[in-house]
Design a protein that fits this description.
- This protein is mainly α.
- Helices cover 52% and strands 0% of the residues.
- It folds into two domains: 63 residues, no CATH class; 104 residues, no CATH class.
- The protein is built from six helices and no strands.
Length: 181
Amino acid sequence: MGAFNRNIITNADVQNVITAPSPERLPATLGSNPPSGNIPALTRSAAAPPPPAPGGVTVPSADDYLTKLVKYVPLEVLGAYLFMAGVIDSNVSDHRAHAWWLGGLLIGMLIITALYDWQVLNVVRRSQIVVSVLGLAVYVFAVGGWFATTTWYHQWYASLALPVFGLLVAIVKLKPLPVPA
C-alpha cells in the first residue's frame, strides 16, 4: 500500500526511533524512509532538519488527533461499505430481506476491516485493529445501515455515538510499536 504508514505513531515510538541502537532495533513498520509517508518529521527549525535515526531513517512525529482518526477507520473499507449498502438499498425492496442483506454486509465488513488492517495496511497493534472495527461499526450506526432496520434505532442516537467515538480516539493510549528482540 503506499507510503502512508497506517500504524498510529506515539511519542514512545518516536523515542524508540531516536534511541534505537541499530536499524534492526527500530520499531515495527518504522524502518522505512520516510517511516510515515507524508507525515512531516519532527522539526527543530526550518533550517535544521531532524536528526536521522540509526540507518539514516527520518525520525517520525507522533500522530495528532486527526491523523489518528484517519488511521483508525480505513476509508477504503468505509467507502466499500457505503457503495455496497447503496446497491442493496437500491435493489432490495422487501423489508425483511433488506435487513438480512444489510446485517450480512455489516458483519462481513467488520471482519474485512480487521483483516484489511492486519494484512493490507500492516497494522501491528491488536488494540488499534479493535478500535478500527469499532470505528466502522460506529460510522455504519451513524448512517443507519442495518441498525435502521431495527425497531429500537433512532437517528439521533448517531448524534451521540459519533462524538463518543471521537472522544475515545483521543483517550485510547496505545502501547509502543514492537521492537525486534
